[in-house]
């Protein structure tokens, strides 16, 4: 299962991208030898070794989560989880990344005024920070290993962009929009997490295909609308105002919620199959990207709704 986030679709987080992935399900009820070839994502070698066969003594050569009890046909408990990613690792790394983003967003809000005399300068800094953050995000997405410094720098610059944009919307368009968008993002996160853990959302290949097709269509329409705005002026195709803008904003939030479900699935599989501890930084990076998407869609939707009052 490949995730919506480019971070999670690399290396061990996917079973169909050229590496043995954590998405493969363990086979219960069979002997250990059969499990090592069918259900063990590491049976064909170390997914971090570029496709080469794992040498003797490599801790990734066998997956303790896939070991079978020959007598009872049930998975045995892993011998050791030292050096493997845990949920605490994911929570701590995500909190660190989001905390960095929130601190720089608050600083940008306070130090970059958006009054008539300074809004041009503040906008320029925000756009520059956003573009650099986008480049750093792409670099990290295609790196073979997580870089905490790169991820935290991305979060810091993304925070500057969000801080200025939020200040502009909150002070010049819709009073209180930023706090409403934060609360909306938190509500979506909690709601999707509860629904996922309760089994109300089933993440499978059909779900993945539907979400990715919808996301591609959404991004294509966004790009077309931007081109019309640049060359035709005005609101382009009308996706940023009126009834069409409201519908577009709701669709964007729903897509963000689907991305969260895909991310939760990838994190769950990574923990279950013993992903290295450093992968927690990639999990934090991917979740941060999704939460930023949802926040921006909420902010735009609230601005449209209050602007029509």
Question: What does this molecule look like?
Answer:
The protein has 309 residues and is mainly α. It is built from eight helices and no strands. The chain has helices at 32-38, 87-111, 119-142, 148-173, 177-197, 205-232, 242-272, 279-307. Helix 2 crosses helix 8 (279-307) and helix 7 packs antiparallel against helix 8 (279-307). The longest helix has 31 residues, at 242-272. The radius of gyration is 22 Å and the shape is globular. Residues 10-80 have low confidence and may be disordered.
Largest sheet: none
- Regions with pLDDT < 50 over 5+ consecutive residues? 10-80
Q: What is the N-to-C order of secondary-structure elements (H for helix, E for strand)?
A: HHHHHHHH
Q: Which overall shape is indicated by the principal axes computed on the Cα atoms?
A: globular
Q: Give the % helix.
A: 55-70%
SS content category:
mainly alpha
Distance between the termini: 44 Å
């Amino acid at each position: 299962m490949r995730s919506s986030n480019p971070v999670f679709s690399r290396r061990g987080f996917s079973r169909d991208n050229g590496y043995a992935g954590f998405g493969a399900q363990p086979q219960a009820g069979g002997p250990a030898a059969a499990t090592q070839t069918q259900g063990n994502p590491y049976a064909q070698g170390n997914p971090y070794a570029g496709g080469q066969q794992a040498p003797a003594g490599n801790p990734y050569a066998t997956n303790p989560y896939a070991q079978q009890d020959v007598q009872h046909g049930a998975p045995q408990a892993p011998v050791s989880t030292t050096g493997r990613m845990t949920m605490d690792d994911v929570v701590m790394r995500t909190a660190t990344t989001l905390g960095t983003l929130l601190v720089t967003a608050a600083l940008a809000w306070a130090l970059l005024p958006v009054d008539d005399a300074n809004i041009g300068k503040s906008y320029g800094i925000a756009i520059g920070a956003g573009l650099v953050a986008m480049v750093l995000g792409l670099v990290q997405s295609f790196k073979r290993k997580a870089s905490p410094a790169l991820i935290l720098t991305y979060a810091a610059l993304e925070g500057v962009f969000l801080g200025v944009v939020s200040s502009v919307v909150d002070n010049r368009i819709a009073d209180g929009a930023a706090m409403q968008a934060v609360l909306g993002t938190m509500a979506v996160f909690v709601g999707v997490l509860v629904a996922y853990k309760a089994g109300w959302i089933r993440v499978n290949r059909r779900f993945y295909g539907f979400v990715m097709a919808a996301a591609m269509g959404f991004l294509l329409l966004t790009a077309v609308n931007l081109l019309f705005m640049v060359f035709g002026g005005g609101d382009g195709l009308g996706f940023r105002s009126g009834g069409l803008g409201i519908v577009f904003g709701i669709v964007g939030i729903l897509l963000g919620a689907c991305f969260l479900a895909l991310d939760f699935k990838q994190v769950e599989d990574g923990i279950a199959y013993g992903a290295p501890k450093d992968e927690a930084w990639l999990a934090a990076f991917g979740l941060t990207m999704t939460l930023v998407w949802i926040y921006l869609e909420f902010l735009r939707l609230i601005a449209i709704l209050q602007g029509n009052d």
